[in-house]
């Protein structure tokens, strides 16, 4: 844990100071406004303005980070929030307070986006889940700590506003003096709200309800507490219990969510919210303060957990590369709910008394309960082992790339001093830069890929010569270097493939497959290009390469999320690979079809159809009708014989496909299947007598 935190200690310190000041301001403002005689509905309206700023910040924060940079954005956020809280103390007019809350919400969203993208850039595939959890714990612990600063000075003075302003200002210092440089980030798009609702109605609706309930609770609880005589340190304890519930309950909810039907867990959570909402006013009226602390912790904890639950529910329905855009849309949906929640709660409390806050929570949760039941009746649940995992997450205003469910993009290379020198040298003397990379490979092979990746981005560098120089010095790094070069400069991948297949014949199969796998969108094209450049008589290499690529592709399907696996179009990929390679090497058409089918058996029927069609077309072009028919009959019998040996469970379906295209061979194929002990069922789906008696030779 310590080793994980150490590189990010300054960033996390800034986060803690900022969120501590924010936690203090959140409890201070409603209590101060109530003390000043501001009406409850006006208090609710002012507090809702925070979410207006939060929404604007969530939408535009990444654009600002691209334009201005991480350090300056965070410094701006710290200074503006400091100004906002100080002006709130100096001029406690509701209009001024509402404007300052908008500024605070905007700055908090931008600051959290800054910290999250910074941590995301510095994290690795292995540690980002741990960093996400640590960041969330720091954030919630700071909010918890901020509640207890309320009791150190009278609320009617300026002291507490000054303390909050000091914390906001101090938060700038650790991040400014940090050695880490702010990363360059790409813009993030969001799904339309209509799209996200169509994909996951329950995820979108529960996210909105989370904003409605959770924001209403955290903003209006201080008003309820004060009206019921809970003041000073007891008020801090009361609000601290609410925050602690949002932290602690994420752990048991995470376990339950990952091991049982998530919608049933959500149903129990909402039922708990309803029951606790009726219980809390009773406990307070009976003077059971300690029990009320437990109840409020459970209530806010359940409400807070609706956010990560709604994310997990939505992520079940979207592709991995869409998770960030879906997360952005869910954040907008949450913000809309949190804008509405405090104001609606304040109007109800103003009309029916402060205890009506919990009546509103019960009624609101009941409508969500009805919706969950409706969705459970309309759509069957995923098996729990196929559900997306639950991760601790709070709506901070950031689209978190730390979330391990998102598609992780490994940085192409680290911008080390050696890289800077080599890149500078490459623009003036490419040959010298290549020699430098070769020398580094001799001295330190493990770091050679980083330098190679950086140099490959320079236009003047010949990627083939660069690869050859480095792998000559460090041949054991051949595959790793090829992957690094391809990831850094995908536009030069074809040039690299051509060089490898003509100049690196010893182990090109493994290298080409590694390159193809590192470019999933263009992997088939890489394989085709390699086949075009291979020696015409190297059938062994072609078949080995094809089988290895398809085997690794099949293995990758097993590791995919169900929704990604469904969208992977594996049969289409297999068919496209076979067609391209058989066009390059038609003499190996049967061998290629078998290699692809064995590696990905579920595609075998499609491949068999493509093979037979290619066979018919080729024989029709080369031979007379009689010879063509004899050759086709012989070829398909040989093909099916090998299918029976290698993938007998698919033999019947493949036989039926062959008969559809070549009815003349039906009796021979049925006899072959009946003679085979490996094939259990030789009952073809269509009777031989029903096959069309048409001549396949034209």
Specify the number of helices: 32
Q: Which structural class is indicated by helix and strand composition?
A: mainly alpha
As a percent range, the share of strand residues is under 5%
Q: State mean pLDDT (0 to 100 scale).
A: 84
The count of β-strands is 0
- CATH architecture of the largest domain, please? Up-down Bundle
CATH third-tier fold name of the largest domain? Growth Hormone, Chain: A
Q: Any low-confidence stretches, pLDDT <50, length ≥5?
A: 685-698
Largest sheet at a glance? none
**CATH class of the largest domain, please?**
Mainly Alpha
Coarse morphology: flat
Rounded to the nearest angstrom, the distance between the terminal CA atoms is 73 Å
Oligomer: single chain
Provide the helix percentage.
over 70%
Rg over C-alpha atoms, rounded to the nearest angstrom? 32 Å
How many structural domains are formed by the residues? 3
- CATH fourth-tier homologous superfamily of the largest domain: MFS general substrate transporter like domains
How would you describe what is shown here?
- With 698 residues, the chain is mainly alpha-helical.
- It has three domains: 14-179, Growth Hormone, Chain: A (Up-down Bundle), CATH 1.20.1250; 191-398, MFS general substrate transporter like domains (Growth Hormone, Chain: A); 413-534.
- Helices cover 75% and strands 0% of the residues.
- Helix 2 (9-35) runs antiparallel to helix 3, helix 23 (508-518) packs antiparallel against helix 24 (523-533) and helix 27 runs parallel beside helix 29 (604-622).
- The longest helix has 30 residues, at 323-352.
- It is flat, with a radius of gyration of 32 Å.
- Mean pLDDT is 84; it is low at 685-698.
